[in-house]
């Protein structure tokens, strides 16, 4: 059955000549041979949406920076935003094609305990794009419609995942908890921010509390590192950066809800800062995963971007040198890492498309 | 009886190195000299059977030597003694055939340490094994040999089995080097073990052979002991009691050097006294207790006492770090004691909080940064360990003493806020709150993977009260008023306090230790929080509670002081041997193997002995040589 299928697929791959272009800029995929398309589609998984996440969060950062410091040319921001838009649209289309042609692969991803979290990623990227859009005003109808379109998948996934944590025996939180679970929390918090931008405070508060309550549970569970939880693959160590992305996003959301960077937002920002320093002081944690390039490396970029966003808001509230210093450090770090990962992706574009056996893939056993 | 039957010599040596050869020849003669050995053994001081001198036995074998060295034996002494004291060496070898005294365990293991009774030393045929085995195996030999075990069983001295790896001790009564005995045994714990002694060595040549062993010593000391070792070897709410059948690497029948007996939990005393100073200051200056007319000199007196105490204790501990770094390292890796490393810094924070108003009213802000800097470094390390998993993850090591790691954040926030700082206190409050939440949930869960929570109540449970009470005060200072957040924390603290206080009966009958001082500061903290609460909620009930809680805190501290004085001067056991840091790094032998060996020996007949002797040289690359030998013996029996 399955064992019979696999060789079949592999033969496919051996015959092709993968086109060495960065998938992101791959606008003429339709021109390529169908076989190449198939192989590309089969190796695509939701983790690739990290790329669009990083791009969109960068766009948001640049938007806010441009808003605050008018000396930064807004042309760069516009370019970035359009780039992010294009990437997101193409990735979405490709993933849609994958759902059509390789539905069982998508189903496997859905069932995998790490992979399912990345199904939030397209919605998060779209929401971020929406929030950073230069031309759409927050109170317009277009914004509201798009907001709901992007938030409905988040809500459905929430109901499915969070309900499973304490009802479905095979998927109890103590077994399924892993650092990637924080993406669901981030999704709720980004939705909260979007809602409050629109002026819908109650809706924003609802998303915020949903995110925070589950964040509490995940935080405690992950800190305990219960034995018996699945082991997290080493190549996915960059995902550890999500530990400080979640409180940073919470801080941003609360800042947006309450209007000022008040004490709760500050506390969340400081928590995020502390965890960041703690992770950075432990290079051993990520050493193993740095050996080979992997699409998981994009997971380094967007948490730092969220932290940078947060530090920008913090510096706005607390106008002293320390805060401005933090803002400068994190923003530059974020831009540098983003550019670095982008260059590395361009350099390793072949590897990007190859199905990575180490990284969980849809056909890999769940208990990896 | 049994003892007699067990007194078979199982020794076979065929060593090689020159020194050994000499010995072996004499060994033959040695059988005759057994009685002499006995005499020596029965010498009250002769705890160390010369045959324990590992040097002669394995002598040639660096492997065996190094195995002995693995405990950082003072090798040169052995060798020097060997060379000098031939008669001793060959006595060592005695693979004593028949014990004449019940004390002597005939099974001398050249590499083993003495039992607490010290009389036994057996050299087993294992020495042969030494030849072929790598060091690790050889050292496992120490543990896995059933010899020591049933030897100890026979002894029934105490439940603790020691392995004396430091053979040099043997010479104690026999050599003029007796005065150096203590040094040798504690060498593994000294920072510069042996370097000073080597200078006094009579035989400069003996330094040479030591060189290869030195590396092995370093190897062992550089490895961190895995946390599982601590859990396996120790028990009790503070992980201080040695489990039965565990061996320690230092002798337990002697009083160790003072510094080795000086645990880090002594800093708990600073915590207790300095928090009292803060309480009396608050009592004197706060609104609700003005009616008591408490004089300020109490605070001043207590403050100066705590300053003196901190300086003394810190100085002594600094000496310990300098002189016995290995012991400090072992304390650092101890899952409970690590939390006490926060205690000195928390005490300094308390000192800053309790400074008498007449001395200084406004502390400079850089002082806060200075005090919190070591805190943040230590925190990054410890919390990172919790999060990154591995053997020290929180689900494994969570215990009530972890509250000490967390409460420091709140104390720092309180101090910073009272100094007028704004952002820094919020930072520490946030970090402390997040980690407190995780710790609280984990402790409440009483996870099955977590063994350290005591089944019976112990004063350490009072630490539960510490974090919420200090958090409430810190939040009040940060926000400027004792609002809802502070009140919630305060009520949690009071609830925990009362639920523990009504179970006071369960606290009886627990062995006193200096760390109990650390458990008094939560009571003091709760009392101070009550005073702050009473400042906001003015009623006679709250005032009454203030007085009661302060009285309880003072009484407890006073009682503890009396107990400490009694233990220090009357019972003279304020600093007992700190067994928790002396556990050996090897797993203890399995029960079944011991019993097998025991049974084997019970049934031993002369044929068996011969078989054993025959088969001891056959070799095995197995780790458990004794078992292999037994197995073969059994085979031969059955055959």
UniProtKB/TrEMBL annotation, chain A:
Transmembrane segments annotated in the record for this chain: 80-103, 110-130, 142-161, 173-192, 204-223, 235-257, 263-281, 293-309, 321-345
- The answer, when asked if Cytoplasm is one of the entry's keywords, is no
Q: Which InterPro entries match?
A: SLAC/SLAH (IPR030183), SLAC1/Mae1/Ssu1/TehA (IPR004695), Voltage-dep_anion_channel_sf (IPR038665)
Keyword annotations for this protein, in alphabetical order, are: Cell membrane, Ion transport, Membrane, Transmembrane, Transmembrane helix, Transport
Would you tell me the protein name for this molecule? Answer: S-type anion channel SLAH4
State the CDD domains in the record: TDT_SLAC1_like (cd09323)
| Location relative to the cell | Cell membrane
UniProt lists the family membership as follows: Belongs to the SLAC1 S-type anion channel family.
Gene3D superfamilies hit by this protein = Voltage-dependent anion channel
**Lineage of the organism:** Eukaryota, Viridiplantae, Streptophyta, Embryophyta, Tracheophyta
A single Pfam family, by name? SLAC1
TrEMBL record, chain B:
One Pfam match: SLAC1
Tell me the superkingdom of the source. Eukaryota
Biased composition (Basic residues) is annotated at: 153-165
Task: Kindly give the membrane topology term recorded for this protein.
Answer: Multi-pass membrane protein
Gene Ontology BP annotations: monoatomic ion transport
Q: Where is the composition biased (Polar residues)?
A: 52-69
Coiled-coil ranges per the record? none
Residue ranges annotated as compositionally biased, kind Basic and acidic residues, are: 71-85
Q: What Gene3D superfamilies does the annotation carry? A: Voltage-dependent anion channel
Keyword flag Membrane: yes
Write out the ranges of the annotated region (Disordered): 49-102, 148-176, 199-220, 616-639
Recite the UniProt keywords alphabetically: Cell membrane, Ion transport, Membrane, Transmembrane, Transmembrane helix, Transport
GO cellular component terms listed in the entry, alphabetical order: plasma membrane
Q: Where in the cell is it found?
A: Cell membrane
Quote the protein name from its UniProt record.
S-type anion channel SLAH3
